[in-house]
Amino acid sequence: MDDDGPGPALASTSASAPEWAVHGTAERPWRSTRRGPRADRLCTSVTTSVPPPIADRRYDPVPEDLALLDRAAAALRSLDQHHGDRLGALGGLLARTEAVASSRIEDEHADLDDYARAVVGVRANGSATLMVAATTALRRLTADAGSGPVTERSIRTAHHDLMRDDPLDGRDAGRYRTVQNWIGGGGSPRLATYVPPPPELVPDAMADLVAFLERDDLHPVAQAAIAHAQFESVHPFTDGNGRVGRALIGAVLRRRRLTTTVTVPVAAALVADRSRYFDHLVRYRSGFVHGFVADLAVAIGTVCDEAALMALLLDEHAEDTRRRFPWPLPELRHDAVLTEDDAEDLLVALRRRSPGSAPGSVDALVQTLERTGTIRPVTQRRRGRAWLVTGVAAELDAFAERVGAGVRDRADRELVHQVAA
Q1: Comparing C-alpha atoms, which of 262, 206, 198 is closest to residue 231?
Q2: At 9, is the pLDDT very low, low, confident or very high (cuts 50, 70, 90)?
Q3: pLDDT digits (tens, 9 = 90+) for 176-229
Q4: Rounded CA gap, 251 and 323, in Å?
Q5: Cα separation, 340 vs 303, whole angstroms
Q6: How far apart are CA 51 and CA 387, in angstroms?
Q7: What's this model's pTM, rounded to 2 decimal places?
Q8: CB–CB of 292/225 below 8 Å?
Q9: In the 8-state DSSP scheme, what is residue 172?
Q10: Do residues 267 and 158 lie in contact, with contact meaning Cβ atoms separated by under 8 Å?
Q11: Which pLDDT tens digit goes with each residue over 287-346?
């Protein structure tokens, strides 16, 4: 059924008392409609998980986490204030980075070449097509949050953007599920690692979550973490829950005004240690939330630091590119993907800046850019072409490597500390 989300817990739940409301359960009749093992066909009921309402629930971070939360908030504001001019123009780039990382958490894999081809409609790689759709969904939900509250309608619209072209679930794009779903276990919930609430409980659960999102009395980073974990527990859609749920993190940060121009690719840190992230979502259902709140704060701080460095490195790349051309080339640091439409816009800008020396055609422009190694073609057709901006693409790979190294280094330090203790 639905394999989008956490797998089995990889760490034992703490023996301490739960810090948050524990999920309940509800029994529902179940009958398999598929061919499968005899045990699946004989299964007549399923135990579902029922997330508790959280709209009015109080949350107090543990004192040692307050510094992490405040540092994450400060890092977000600093990135917006000091690099907003740079990264504001890179909104699409950062959103794509987040969408790609979020999709990889769901085992969707495609390189930047495939992604660039999908941007111009080449559907050779289904994962790349999903990543492009995830980018649209993320940007829509974040933009909506910047102009008002996060609503059920904006969440459903983001899901529609994500899933509308999916061959299996496209017909349910933007609609809450009306069937029982589950995570893991193959064609039956009998051996599932998680069975979300029955479909008739989803509308009330989502209304409660949206009410929680309207609050302003929680630390914004803690609110983003809890909202994401609650969304994943409700699992309101037949598929795409993980990607929409992670987009919700950015939407909360935007609504609470920690960001105004940038989308911080938090999923780049989460994908570096998927098992830890999934385990947090499992533990949330048992009432343990502090660990995920703290980890999200650390992830945000790590990604903000690396995004600020990326902005500076892309500045250097843009300056180096400008020095190599005979005409005043507009910046090519706003995206890793250059489409034919982008190239035409670039040519128009060049003609305005330097009418006497600009290239005579788009082909002349891209041939010069290719010859100098500034861009690399990823399509072979005559129309609707796409290229990768090589310097930007290389910096995106380096960004992901730096974030992953930071996450792994922290995990190693924690392991050493645990062994020493």
Answers
A1: 206
A2: very low
A3: 999 999 999 888 888 899 999 999 999 999 999 999 999 999 999 999 999 999
A4: 39
A5: 31
A6: 46
A7: 0.90
A8: yes
A9: G
A10: no
A11: 999 999 999 999 999 999 999 898 888 888 777 777 777 666 666 667 889 999 999 988
Strand blocks (E) in 284-405: 337-339, 375-377, 386-389
Q: Which of 113-127, 207-221, 223-237 has the lowest mean pLDDT?
A: 113-127
Q: Tokens 């795409």 — which residue?
A: 240
**H or E element in which residue 268 lies:** helix 267-270
Q: What's the token pair of residue 14?
A: 């703490």
Amino acid at 373: G
3-state secondary structure of 385: coil
Contact 102, 110 (CB under 8 A): no
Reported as a single tens digit per residue, the pLDDT across 253-264 is 999 999 988 888
Contact (CB, 8 A) for 95 and 146? no
3-state secondary structure of 368: helix
Instruction: Please tell me the distance from the alpha carbon of residue 170 to that of residue 188, in angstroms, as a whole number.
Output: 22
Fill in the DSSP letter of residue 326: S
Q: Which two tokens stand for residue 53?
A: 């309402």
Q: Which helix (H) or strand (E) holds 26?
A: strand 24-29
DSSP conformational letter for 334: S
